[in-house]
Structure to design on (543 residues):
């Protein structure tokens, strides 16, 4: 493959990940720019931690993030990231982090919309997508280089017909890519039937599987497929350390 | 030879005559049926054009013909139609008398389903009458009996007030809660339209139907009745497709409201009746009460 045709990479901020997908010429690694990636695997293997790390690293580099939480609310997001010493408050205040919270409404938590925090409901995909549209425009205006996370598809699948969630995902990835962003989407393996899982993998550009011990690339644009061991520490995920 | 031929022809003629009695009786019956059908159609057209006297005249003629044929089911059908005309004229008590008469004939003719439908229609129209009576009693400050329906007065709708009432009804549908904040925005219609386009894109039929109702209500408020009716009808079709009984009942109420403003009382009655029936089937007292409130408001504007 010619060097000129290779998609540039963006750093994930996850130590060791840069060795899994690496530009041989520059030695730089990360995920291909302006692509969408699915991270899937069994429950509790670190998929959400991967998302926090990806988001936080972008924020540190002044890349805004559009974050969709569908499995937990804003409060939990702040608490969980704080466990790794990643503090979101500043980024919320300076409007670098735009959160669409699809769960707090559902769980009855009393929250109010702000410029960069929007409540929606997991069983109301149209409203979710309206807010994705608003959020994408907002982060794009902040910076043409931005990140997005959709964590995760498990609850949307539980409350909506499978095919509707697939169409939501298609619309989401289309909007992020059109605006020039890079997105990570997570999914719990086995929560839908194989055909739907296979459709999910077709929609995105890159597919990574995490199983609690190793992370492997099942599909990746322009780069070689590799796998490596990983572990979860109090500093987040470390890849290739075991 | 010639004599033999003449005798043969006469027998042929007699034979044909004998055969033609049944034929002409049947033909006569068909002609009467055709005449009645024509009279009923004329009655319907005149009712549609709000020429109620002419409508009643033709329907009475149809009724006489059915009487002469001793056709009970036919009589019931025409009596029901005459009742509809009186309902359109907002003469609710007269309409009820005709409906009750129709019910008797359907019962006598053992038309079970028609009889049941008639009974439901009577119940629904009685509810409308009772609702009007309650409000009239509250309004009446003198001993005089107030006129129940201002037949001669032209109906003037308070679109803002009706729209507010419909908003209450739309909010009964769970899916609409989340879109409530769109109403508060300056360009509510624009926001709703954007959401509607997205719902179509992702195939979210629940969202699509809810948004159609909400946009329809804004159109109604803007007195754009035809488009409001189209939105409500499209939403009803979607709820029907999804098998969502509550959504169907709400959209029928909204459809009925537009027909009320347009003055098409036959359709008003059908829509409201079906809607209230659904709420009763669902055991949804809250929605039923809101529906009756709406009727109260409309009939006492």
């Amino acid at each position: 493959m010619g060097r000129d045709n290779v998609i540039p990479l963006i750093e994930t901020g996850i130590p060791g990940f840069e060795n899994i997908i690496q530009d041989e010429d520059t030695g730089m690694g990360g995920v291909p720019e302006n692509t969408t990636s699915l991270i899937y695997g069994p429950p509790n293997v670190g998929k959400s931690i991967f998302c926090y790390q990806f988001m936080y690293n972008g924020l540190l580099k002044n890349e805004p993030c559009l974050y969709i939480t569908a499995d937990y609310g804003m409060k939990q997001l702040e608490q969980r990231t704080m466990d790794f010493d990643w503090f979101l408050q500043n980024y919320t205040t300076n409007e670098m982090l735009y959160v669409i919270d699809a769960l707090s409404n559902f769980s009855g938590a009393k929250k109010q919309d702000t410029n960069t925090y929007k409540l929606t409901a997991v069983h109301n995909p149209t409203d979710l997508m309206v807010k994705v549209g608003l959020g994408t425009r907002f982060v794009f205006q902040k910076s043409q280089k931005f990140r997005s996370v959709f964590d995760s598809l498990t609850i949307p699948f539980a409350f909506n017909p499978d095919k509707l969630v697939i169409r939501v995902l298609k619309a989401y990835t289309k909007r992020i890519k059109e605006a020039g962003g890079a997105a990570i989407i997570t999914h719990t393996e086995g929560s839908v039937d194989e055909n739907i899982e296979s459709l999910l993998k077709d929609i995105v550009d890159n597919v990574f599987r995490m199983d609690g011990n190793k992370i492997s690339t099942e599909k990746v644009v322009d780069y070689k497929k590799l796998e490596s061991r990983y572990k979860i520490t109090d500093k987040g995920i470390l890849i290739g350390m075991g | 030879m010639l004599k033999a031929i003449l005798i043969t022809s006469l027998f042929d003629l007699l034979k044909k005559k004998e055969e033609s009695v049944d034929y002409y009786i049947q033909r006569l019956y068909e002609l009467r049926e055709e005449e009645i059908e024509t009279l009923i159609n004329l009655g319907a057209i005149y009712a549609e054009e709000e020429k109620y006297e002419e409508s009643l005249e033709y329907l009475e003629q149809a009724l006489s013909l059915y009487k002469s044929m001793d056709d009970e089911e036919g009589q019931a059908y025409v009596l029901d139609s005459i009742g509809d005309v009186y309902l359109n004229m907002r003469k609710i008590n007269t309409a009820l008398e005709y409906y009750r008469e129709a019910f008797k004939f359907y019962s006598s003719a053992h038309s079970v389903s028609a009889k049941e439908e008639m009974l439901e229609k009577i119940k629904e129209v009685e509810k409308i009458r009772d609702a009007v009576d309650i409000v009239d009693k509250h309004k009446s400050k003198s001993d005089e009996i107030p006129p129940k329906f201002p037949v001669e007065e032209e109906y003037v709708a308070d679109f803002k007030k009706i729209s507010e009432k419909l908003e209450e009804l739309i909010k009964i549908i769970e899916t609409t809660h989340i879109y409530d904040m769109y109403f508060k925005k300056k360009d509510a219609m624009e926001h709703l339209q954007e959401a509607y386009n997205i719902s179509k894109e992702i195939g979210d039929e629940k969202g699509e139907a809810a948004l159609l109702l909400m946009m329809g209500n804004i159109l109604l408020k803007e007195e754009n009745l035809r488009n409001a009716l189209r939105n409500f009808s499209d939403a009803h079709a979607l709820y029907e497709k999804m098998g969502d009984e509550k959504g169907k009942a709400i959209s029928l109420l909204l459809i009925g409201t537009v027909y009320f403003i347009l003055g098409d009382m036959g359709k008003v009655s059908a829509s409201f009746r079906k809607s209230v029936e659904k709420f009763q089937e669902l055991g949804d007292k809250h929605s039923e009460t809101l529906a009756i409130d709406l009727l109260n408001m409309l009939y006492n504007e």
Chain B is about 80% helix and 0% strand. Chain B has two domains: 16-134, 159-299.
